[in-house]
Every structure is written in C-alpha cells, then in structure tokens.
Amino acid sequence: MNKNGNLQYFSRDSRAVSEVMGEILLVAIVVILLSSVAAVVYGELGVTDVPHVEIHERVNTTYNRIKIEHAGGEPLKLDSIKITLYRNGEKYDFLPSDPDVTCSSDNGAWKFGDTIVIDTDQVRSIKMEENDTVDLFFIHTPSRQVLHKVRLSDAWKR
Q1: pTM of the full structure
Q2: Domain range summary for the chain, segments of one domain joined by +
Q3: Strands 65-73 and 53-60, how do they pair?
Q4: pLDDT tens digit sequence for 4-40
Q5: Cα–Cα distance between 152 and 52 in angstroms, integer?
Q6: Looking at the chain, which terminus has fewer C-beta neighbours within 10 angstroms, N or C?
Q7: Sheet with strand 81-87: strands edge to edge
Q8: Strand partners, 59
Q9: Domain 53-157 belongs to what topology?
C-alpha cells in the first residue's frame, strides 16, 4: 500500500472516536466541578487583599504625640485602620474616628502624604516617658493583618 492509501484509511476509520470524545467530556466536567468547588471554598474563607503601604512615624515625647505618615503604596479607607500601642505592657487601641486622633485626609481615604496624629495625653492621659517601652502596630482591620510595626521607644533612646 502506498502512503496516501494509509492516510485515507486512517482518516475514515471512526473506531474509538466515541471513547475519546467521552474521555474529553469527562475531563472537562471534572475540571469545571473542581473549579466551582475551589471558587466556593475560596469565597467562604473571606480572604481579603492585604494592601501594601509604607509608613513613617515620628514621636514627640514632650507633647505626647505620635505622627504617622503615609509614605507610599495603596490608599486605605479610614474605617479599615486600627492603631494599637503597647506601652509598658498595656494595650491601647486608636481609631481614626477617635477624639484623640487627627487625620489629614479627605473623602475617607488615607493616601500618600496624609498624616495621622495621635495625642496620647488628650483623652486617655497616656504620658510617654523616655524609659517606657512603646510598640506601635498599624493594623488593616478587614484582613486582620499588621501592615507596620515598630518599637517607638528605640527612637528616643538613641
């Protein structure tokens, strides 16, 4: 037989076509089901995107103020921010809406160049001394992730 005769015979041979099509359909159904299950599970976990932001902080122990500056990265909604201070083992939570917190942002978003100033002595009477150990945690509340943490007391001990 010549080469063309074999090709024509092969192209007309329809044996096992239904088995191959069946396997392809089964694989497609399994892929669709697995992706559906993965989408449901991933959606139920409530995973939120963790924003990336660079933060600079300054402390003024004379006036008991902490200034936190947005130095780059993504803007954050003010209602998604929580700042936690640990001073000598005591925990203090601050929100941008608190009376002892001043925020220089507009339209509810904290973006590049905006600042948050915490006056620790205004409402809560937290006086920061040079021998205190003060840790600051800047927390993104929807994802429950710490975006920035720093030991503030190291700055004034230098």
Answers
A1: 0.66
A2: 3-45, 53-157
A3: antiparallel
A4: 556 666 667 667 678 888 899 999 999 999 999 988 8
A5: 21
A6: C
A7: 90-94, 81-87, 134-140, 145-151
A8: 66
A9: Immunoglobulin-like (2.60.40)
